[in-house]
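Researcher: Next entry in the queue.
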Amino acid sequence: MKNPCFNKILIANRGEIAVRVIRACREMGIATVAVYSEADVEAMHVRLADEAFLLGPAPAAESYLNIPRLLDVIRQSGAEAVHPGYGFLSENAGFARSLAEAGVTLIGPSPEAMSLMGSKMASKETMQAAGVPTVPGYTGAEQSLERLQQEALQIGFPLLVKASAGGGGKGMRVVRDAEALPAALAAAKREALSAFGDDSMLLERYFDNVRHIEFQILADSHGKTLHVLERECSIQRRHQKIVEESPSVALSPALRAEMGAVAVKAAEAVNYTNAGTVEMLLDDQGRYYFLEMNTRLQVEHPVSEMVSGLDLVKEQIRIAAGLPLPYSQEQIQPRGHAIEVRLYAEDPDQGFLPTTGQIAVLQEPVGYGIRVDSALYPGYAVNPFYDPMLAKLIVHGSNRADAIEKLQRAIADYTVLGLKTNLGYLRRVIAHPAFASGETFTHFVETHAESLQRQPCVPAELLAALLHIQAAPASSPAGAAGLEADPYSPWLQGVSLRL
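Model: Structure for this entry, 499 residues:
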C-alpha cells in the first residue's frame, strides 16, 4: 500500500539521530537514503539505510555541510524529502531554501521561520512584540564597545554576553563586573566569528539560581499548534545539556499550562510549522523568560516521547506531508516520569575533553521502561571529527523516584570499554542527593564539582597500609612471617588483584 506521506526520505545526518530517523521511516514503510563521510564508511546508519551515498572527506565542511553535494545526492537518489536531524544543516535557512527551489520537502519549518528564530536578536524582538516575557537585555545593532558597556551598566551584573547567531555555548561568557566586560566581549566575538561567521553580540541579565525549562512544540500546516509538555534541562556542563527530564519538579499544573500557552504563542508569532522547542528560564520566584527557539528536533526529544506516548519523528514526517495533527492539547497529558542522560566520549577528569578510540566491549542496558538511542557496536571506531556524543539512555518510571532508581540500575548495567566516557560521571550525578531532591539548577555541575569528582576505589590510607605490609621484611611482625599462619593470604599467592 502506498504510504500517505513519502516514498523515500534522505537523512542529512549521522550517528544515533540518523539511526533513529531510519527506524521510524522503516516502521512507516518509507525507503531511506543515508549519506556519509569517509570517516563514517562503517557507521551503523550506513548499514541500516536502503541506500547510502558518500559525501566526501571526514571534515564536516567537506561532507555533511556540503550543500551542493547533498543536492546532487538528493537528485541521484530520487528522495522526496529530507530529514536534517539536529546539528549540521538542521537550522540552516539557506539549505532549506535550496531544497524548496529543488522541489524537495524539508521535514522542518519554513526557511523564514528558521531564519528569524536563528537570530537571537531578531527572535527576542519578535517575542517582545508578541507579548512573550523575555530576559532583560540589549539586542541592538550598535555593537561598539562603548555602547555595549553603557547597556551593560543599565542591565546590571552579572550578565551574559552571547553570540546572536550562536548555539551550543559557543560565543558565550558570564561577566560578573564591569572590569571584566571588555576581555569577555573580545573573547566571545572571536569565538563567534570563527564558529558562525558573525560576531554580533547580545547582552542578557544572568541569573544564578535558575532552571532551564523548554517546551516541545508541534505545529501543522492547518493552523493547529500544540505543546507536548515540558522538559527540564538544567544540568549542563559548559552550556551543553547532559541530563534532561519530564515533567519538571518545579512546575505546578497551573504554571505548566501557563508556560505551555506562552510557548505556543511564541511559535504562532512566527507562523511555525513542524517540530520545534521553545526554551525558557525559570527563576526561583516562579518568573519565566523566553530564551530562544530551536527550529529542529532536539537531542532530548525521547523524554517527551516517553511521557506523552507520541513518536515525534513520525509526527514530523506526517506534518511535512501536509497531514493535520489528529489530537487536541487536552489529550496530551504526562504519564509517569522520564529521564535522559547523554553518553559522551569525553574525560570528565580532564575538563570534559573529547576522547577517541575503538569500542572493544559494548553492553547496553535492557528492561522495562529502558531505552537506548545509539549507533554504537563492538569494533566501532570513535573519531575526532564530530560531536563526541555517542548515545542516549532514557528511562521511564511511574514517578520520579522510580525513574531515578531505574536509571541508576541502567547506568550500572551500561558497559563501554575501549575509550574513556562519562558513564561514571553520570552515575555520580544521578546518585547525588541534590538531584534526588530536585535541586536541579543550571549551576548544578559547578556547585557540586568537588563531590562529582571521581573518587579512588580504595582509600589512600588503606592502600598505603596494604603496601606497607607487602613491603615489610620477613623478620617484621607485619611481614611475611606474620602471614605464614594464613595459607590463603593474597600476599603469598603470587596473583594479581584489582583493588
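Model: The longest helix spans residues 181-196.
Researcher: Noted, moving on.
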